[in-house]
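To make the argument concrete, we let one protein speak, a sequence paired with a row of structure tokens, as a model reads it:
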Amino acid sequence: MVDVSAKSATHRVAIASGRIVMLPATFQLIEQGNAKKGDVLGIARIAGIQAAKKTSDLIPLCHPLALTRVNVDFTPEAHASHPAWLCTATVETVGVTGVEMEALCAVQIALLTIYDMCKAADKGMTITSVRLDEKTGGKSGRFVR
């Protein structure tokens, strides 16, 4: 791992996002709460939060961090032929290294959870556009896509 012992602790925030595109019928199952496995977005939200907390267990050289906030939100994108759910994760800490990987992990796992919970209805769902949208804090300062 990179030695961060000489770095100063600062307030750090990272925001990441991604989409899962699906059939209109699958989108409606989720939106109406009728998926066979239960509350898809609620369970995906918890999965994303857990993923942010476990990032250092998943990515070998990530530092374990004391996160001060993890928020995972879903926004419907109800386009007629290609509906999708946008997932946005915001992760915060006060520490010596950033939380970009935690935000990206939260998005990926939240979207994978949606896929897992709905794959019986739609194996063709596509996870796309996962990216870091913004980060603040630390030596490199602010990044906004």
In short: The helical segments are 24-32, 40-53, 55-58, 100-118.
